[in-house]
Design a protein that fits this description.
alpha+beta; BirA Bifunctional Protein, domain 2; Rossmann fold; Translation Initiation Factor IF3; 3 domains; eleven-stranded mixed beta sheet; five-stranded mixed beta sheet; 18 strands
Length: about 375
């Protein structure tokens, strides 16, 4: 995929600036990073801001099937990043006509559930069909010599993911960062009382830093003066650094460090002494474990806040007004019904879920009482 950083449009008409003559020119794959400014009546930090950075793609293809494949592929790329890097599980699926991108043939989305049990649309991928190609007359010549419109896609994520990361994992003490995304995976805090101890623990801290860096771990040694160890601990916890290594004179003598995890599953010890021997490999194991445990904990929260098989409107309203979360209901397919539920409860259909997320026994009736044509995931959302 080729990036074109000079393209500053955030809309599919960016394809207008691309020269497409023949089927040999296809597919066109554009990746764009750009700051966008747009009007927001009510701003919300990270989630809805007047200006934000986003990554967005624009592609053109010879056939509908190729465009659909690209649309689904990029949805999968986003899901992989959200789950494997952000440790944030998402539900993927199709947006309803009312929720899809204006002008798109189909819109797919990744929907995450935040700790307050509100949904967040974390990323979208759009099959635009030939709608924008017709609007801007973007054509190509087929092998048979016919001139036809291209099939295009558009997909993107933004700094909204920063807000998602904060809300998916953070607590009252501050950030909790997955190791794979943390600027520093490990911070080393040397502890000393006098100059003699200072030189000993700083030398040991330097050796630890070198070993961890040799293991490919992003590490920082906190040698700031004028701050006691407790203040440093608080500072790094607030920043969400996954693992803290404390080392004082006794630790140096014992050839060990005290490892303190920012996130610990219930029942596990937060503090663990680690031998300096083989420390790099052991720390890598701990970081890999933390990454997986964050994802597992977030997935468990999502599942515990998901209710399936809801057909009764009163039960649905109680769930929306109470615990929130993802509520799996039937849907008759009528836009008027979808809008009425939204007006009455402020809950929207987040997605028509992909097969892997569907219930074993989907509701047979919609909330309006009509026969259901499929399952819908509803929630209040940011």
């Amino acid at each position: 995929m080729i990036g074109y950083p000079g393209l500053q449009s955030d809309h599919p008409e960016v394809l207008k600036s691309v020269s497409v003559h023949s089927y040999r020119d296809l597919p066109v794959l554009l990746n764009q990073w750009a700051n966008v400014v747009r009007w927001e009546m009510r701003t919300r930090p990270f989630l809805r801001t007047t200006e934000f950075l986003w990554q967005v793609g624009h592609t053109a293809h010879a056939t509908l099937d190729e465009a659909e494949e690209e649309t689904r592929r990029m949805l999968g790329v986003y899901r992989t990043f959200m789950e494997d890097w952000m440790a944030m599980p998402v539900i993927t699926g199709l947006k309803t006509d009312a929720e899809r991108f204006a002008g798109a043939l189909r819109t797919y989305a990744c929907e995450g559930l935040m700790k307050d049990n509100k949904a967040l649309q974390a990323g979208t991928s759009h099959n635009l069909g030939q709608n924008f190609a017709r609007a801007f007359d973007v054509r190509y010549q087929t092998e048979e010599g016919e001139h036809v419109h291209v099939w295009s896609t558009s997909w993107g994520v933004s700094t909204r993911l920063v807000g998602a990361l904060i809300m998916a994992h953070g607590d009252d003490s501050g950030l909790i960062l997955p190791p794979r995304l943390a600027p520093y995976e490990v911070v080393v805090v040397p502890i000393w009382r006098d100059d003699d101890q200072r030189s000993v623990v700083l030398e040991a801290g330097g050796r630890i830093q070198a070993e961890l860096e040799a293991e490919g771990i992003r590490v920082h040694v906190d040698v700031r003066e004028g701050l006691n160890p407790g203040s440093k601990y608080y500072d790094w916890e607030r920043r969400g650094v996954p693992l803290r290594l404390e080392i004082g004179p006794r630790d140096v003598a014992a050839e060990s460090v005290m490892a303190v995890r920012r996130f610990t599953p219930p029942g596990d010890d937060r503090k663990t002494p680690l031998s300096v021997a083989g420390l790099g490999a052991r720390v890598r194991q701990v970081l890999v474990a933390i990454q997986g445990e964050l994802l597992a904990a977030a997935r468990e929260r999502r599942e515990s806040a998901s209710v399936r098989g809801v057909e009764d409107p009163a039960q649905f309203r109680d769930l929306v007004d109470g615990q929130g979360g993802f509520i799996f209901t039937g849907w008759c397919g009528a836009a008027a019904c979808e809008q009425k539920v939204k007006d009455d409860t402020k809950a929207t259909i987040r997605v028509i879920p992909d097969e892997e997320f569907r219930s074993d026994e989907a509701p047979s009736r919609c909330l309006c009482g009509a026969p259901s044509k499929g399952e819908a995931v509803r929630a209040r959302a940011y």
